[in-house]
Amino acid sequence: MFGITFLMAFLVSPFWGRFGDKRGYKKILMATGTGIALSIFFMGFVTSVYQLFFLRMAMGLVTGFIPTSLAMISAQTPKSSAGKTLGTLQMGQVSGSLFGPLLGGMLADHFGFTYTFFITSFVIFSSVLLVLFGVKEKPLAEKTAKRTSYSRKEVLSYIFHHPALWVMMLLTMLIQTGNFSIQPLLALYVNELHGPVNLAFFSGMAFSATGLGSLLLARKWGDLGDRYGHRRILIGLLLAASFFFIPQALASSLSVLLVFRFLFGMAMGGLLPCITAAIRVQAPGSIQGEVLGYNVSFRFLGNVLGPLLGGIISSHFTISATFYVTAFLFFAGACMLWIMQKLRKDSYAKAS
Length: 352
Known about the structure:
single chain; mainly alpha; Growth Hormone, Chain: A
């Protein structure tokens, strides 16, 4: 039920990005935002799990708001400050993930699930109105100077022949797979460390610790990427994330887990903004939305693969083993990026 939205978003994200490249990002933001609002609104009327399933699937089909907003913001931002700006966007996304479940729980307790869907739908539709009246999309000089129509085959060929792009997409998938492999198991792990007393509250603290760390440093990591190079910052953050996962597997108390979840969040906050900014630098403006759409597809694919990986490992071994495997994924991502950067330097040296 939960994963069907991610699966559909994985399939359609590049199409929304392509439409945005051709017809403007603002129109796509309004269309997808309205679609999400309507999907959630009708969830308040469902009478069976099948109806909810199809509405979740429909919501996945119109989940183009995030990739389109990424493409629009990066396209309207100078390349020299793309990381800092996208880090600010990441702060907004993390804030939503932190406060959304809290507000949703409060609304459900006070008004019930049906009215929670209605209120959420209204809030999302309000954001569509903000886009309509508050966002002005400037035409890109790069688009007016060159042809703006590229076939899907040409875009895929461009990505395939530029390792800097497809490596970033693989990194996005690895990061989300690692991040989501642990999340469904956190409540069980907190129960092992702390016991069943106030389990929901302390599990929420474990979730929120990561988000709080991301919120504090997302903008700063993007700024550092703009100054010193996004790949260099990414390698450091991936190694740090890998290191901070190992003590979580060895944690003997909840407090130790919370500290290292927070430290992991500080590293995690800069990963996706730096990846998006690196793609912004490499991809031409006329195909940027579609390229970022493919990157978001890999992100949603990681959201689907992560819980599957975590469930398989924890069922055959232990929850602690999942932390070790996740640490290896982040370490492997750092190695992959380092190797790509070394090969790129060697090719430049031979060319010169």
